[in-house]
Predict the structure.
Amino acid sequence: MREQVSTRWRDEQGFTVAEVLMASVLVVIIFIPLYTMFLAGNRTFNTGVDRAEIQQNARVALQSMSREIRMAGYESPGLANPACPSPKAAACVLPTQQAARIGLRADVDGDNTTEEVEYELRNCVNLICELARRERDWDSATSTWGAWSAYESIAGNIEGLTFTYLPALTPSRVRVRVNVRETNTAPDVAYMVVSDMVLRNL
């Protein structure tokens, strides 16, 4: 019995140390480039998702502001509005004209009441902010403005918001620039949109 066992083991062939090392090197040579390609593809996908998200943020921010800025000074037909008497002046239509903040007066929701709307950046963390909006209504009974509403967040990841009033003293046009940045991935993904808006109701 002992003789049979030793003969059987003697016939078995194993791997030599050199063969094991060679197989390990081949596995490394094959799988490292595959893993690198996977990481690159994953990084490209994440960057694309981030770019789409910040572009959407920029579009939402610009679309919301541009609609109301273009309406600045609008009043429903026959609406007597002491808040912005006729003939309208740019200072009345745009009571706040700052480089990073704008205020406008108009019947933005068509309810026969003039609203004053303001846009500015708030809740900033590491220079990345939210675009916020608030409004208040003109009370014709008391000829005064009501209380400001709470700020409503319109869009996030806003790095910069710039309003340029053209011409500067009596603007009939507003240029808005929105800079957005996604900082959760490396490298950062940034995007900028610019739009000129004509004040049609001056």
User: Anything to note?
Assistant: The chain has a mean pLDDT of 82. Residues 35 and 41 are 10 Å apart (CA to CA).
